[in-house]
Specification:
Layout lengths: L3 H4 L3 E9 L2 E10 L3 E7 L5 E2 L2 E2 H4 L10 E3 L2 E5 L8 H9 L4 E3 L9 H13 L2 E4 L12 E3 L5 E4 L14 H9 L2
Parallel strand pairs: 7-8, 8-9
Antiparallel strand pairs: 1-2, 2-3, 4-5, 6-7, 9-10, 10-11
Length: 177
């Protein structure tokens, strides 16, 4: 028999990486079969109180790309990259079904709006997980390809999990964009 949970186990996120004289906020994919697979450095680096990313890291090239892992086509938009609607549209056109969006943000409504608009513009699922603690109080969500919030963290449910139907991506793309 096939162990679906083991086959679909993927961990995506970002990590600080020192590469010679460069410091990156770099995406990654980890699977039990392949281990750690390095991704790309974050391109949009805010420079603001408690978030001096432009000071801490070097800027990566613009342009998230579609990644393939078995039958899944996914990509990552890191935190502020959710705010760039052209990125989401291009990822949707390249066949991405799921966009992971790790964040370290406060609770401003812009983050939920950005995640929902990213899902709509790409016609893809968006799973955005926020780091918590201190001023990082924003929630985490799983958004469907039509922009609906399908699952959300809160104090009673700090971890969420959802089985998704990738056929919904194809259906959403028939209606918009």
């Amino acid at each position: 028999t096939r162990d679906l949970a083991a086959q679909s186990c993927r961990v995506v996120g970002t990590r600080a990486v020192a590469d010679g004289a460069k410091r990156w906020n770099e995406t990654f994919l980890w699977t039990p079969e392949r281990g750690l697979v390095r991704g790309r450095p974050k391109a949009l680096l805010p420079q603001q109180e408690r978030g001096w990313e432009e000071t801490w890291f070097h800027r990566g090239a613009h342009g998230a790309v579609a990644e393939h892992d078995g039958e899944l086509c996914f990509s990552e938009l890191v935190c502020t990259e959710l705010m760039v609607s052209t990125a989401a549209r291009l990822l949707g056109q390249s066949g991405v079904q799921v966009i992971a969006a790790p964040r370290a943000t406060g609770a401003h409504a812009r983050w939920e709006v950005a995640a929902r608009m990213t899902a709509i513009a790409a016609g893809a699922f968006v799973a955005t997980a926020n780091r918590r603690g201190g001023t990082l109080t924003g929630g985490s969500w799983i958004v469907g390809p039509d922009g609906d919030i399908l699952a959300r963290t809160d104090e009673s449910a700090p971890i969420i999990s959802l089985e998704i139907d990738l056929a919904l991506v194809a259906r959403a793309r028939l209606t918009y964009p």
